[in-house]
Design brief:
By secondary structure, this protein is α+β, with helices and mostly antiparallel strands. It has three domains: about 5-65, no CATH class; about 70-90 and about 180-300, D-amino Acid Aminotransferase, Chain A, domain 1 (2-Layer Sandwich); about 95-175, no CATH class. It has helices spanning about 5-10, 10-20, 30-40, 55-65, 70-75, 75-85, 135-150, 150-155, 240-250, 285-295, and strands at about 95-100, 115, 125-130, 170, 185-190, 190-200, 205-210, 255-260, 265-270. A five-stranded antiparallel β-sheet has the order 7-6-5-8-9. Strands 1-4-2-3 form a four-stranded antiparallel β-sheet. Helix 2 (about 10-20) runs antiparallel to helix 3 and helix 4 packs across helix 10 (about 285-295). Keywords: Transferase. It holds the Pfam family ATPgrasp_TupA. InterPro entries: ATPgrasp_TupA. This is Glycosyl transferase.
């Protein structure tokens, strides 16, 4: 959640946040996206001839709506979808699934676990338990129930989330030898990895570092996380991670495949069709155009 100071410095984005809360007043998807784009990006949205990365992601929200996309973004059903393509060895074990927080029997869960909603985006629908004896259930319930009530189709017109029936799942707690869980986000364009974002310190300093497929640093700065000066080593199974991402993104104009690398083992995280919901210009018009050129829009006529 953005701070008050952020919105004071960015009044148009503050207005955008108000529009999102009042989304029910805008039944027309195209008009709604044009308004949000003007407020969030400070420019008009060109849907007739989209060129940039941010424009093309908005176009895909409106025109690329395959039924299987819902299964792919639901954090419960996505596991079966991914396992059918790359195998179950890459799937983080699920410890339980519930329709509401009240149904959770914590006595059946281990001392460490992760609770998350199947319909959430970003970190809003996640509660991490490192010690069940000190786990704040009230805060977790508040966070998860808020996420369950949200709908990314209503607020941001991300169509794959429209018909997901919200639930809570528990997963095995994961962390590497450094004591954290690095998130490798592979930006895939029609089945080809073009760039990778490595997210570290997610719940503290929140650092994002971009690399090319050979793990050379890219001069990109995300709006959502500052670059870390710490040395990030290329995982030993990097080529395997690239191969997995390309298998999962085959014949899809754009999708972000998130993987974890824990103690020399690769795990699937999630699939995302609209990185930052299409409101990140990747720190410059140059990279916004480069990523846009990589997206080949399908013929949806």
């Amino acid at each position: 959640m953005r701070s008050l100071g952020y919105y004071i410095k960015n009044p148009l984005k503050a207005l955008g946040a108000i529009v999102v809360r009042c989304n029910f007043f805008f039944p027309d998807d195209e008009l709604y996206l044009k308004l949000l784009f003007r407020l969030y990006m400070g420019k008009r949205l060109n849907l007739k001839r989209p060129q940039t990365y941010s424009e093309k992601l908005q176009w895909l929200k409106l025109h690329d709506r395959k039924p299987e996309y819902t299964q792919m973004v639901d954090k419960i059903t996505a596991k079966e979808y991914v396992a059918s393509i790359i195998g179950r060895d890459y799937i983080i074990p699920t410890l339980g699934i519930w329709k509401s927080f009240d149904e959770i029997d914590f006595s059946t869960l281990p001392d460490q676990f992760v609770l998350k909603t199947n319909n959430g985006g970003g970190g809003g629908g996640i509660a991490i338990c490192k010690n069940k004896a000190t786990f704040n259930k009230k805060n977790a319930e508040k966070k998860l129930m808020r996420s369950m009530k949200s709908n990314l189709y209503r607020t941001l017109r991300e169509w794959p989330y429209k018909n997901i029936k919200s639930k809570i799942l528990a997963e095995q707690f994961m962390q590497d030898d450094s004591g954290q869980l690095r998130d490798y986000k592979f930006f895939c364009f029609s089945g080809v990895v073009r760039a990778v974002l490595v997210a570290t310190n997610r719940f503290t300093s929140h650092n994002f570092n971009y690399y090319d497929p050979l793990f050379n640093p890219l001069p990109i700065e995300s709006r959502d996380g500052k670059c870390s000066s710490a040395i990030i080593n290329r995982p030993e199974k990097w080529d395997e991670m690239i191969s997995i991402a390309e298998k999962l993104s085959k014949e899809i104009p754009f999708i972000r495949v998130d993987l974890y690398y824990v103690n020399n083992h690769v795990y699937f995280g999630e699939l995302t069709f609209f990185d930052s919901s299409g409101y990140d210009d990747l720190s410059s018009e140059h990279w916004n155009m480069v990523f846009g050129d990589w997206i080949q829009l399908p013929d949806c006529n």
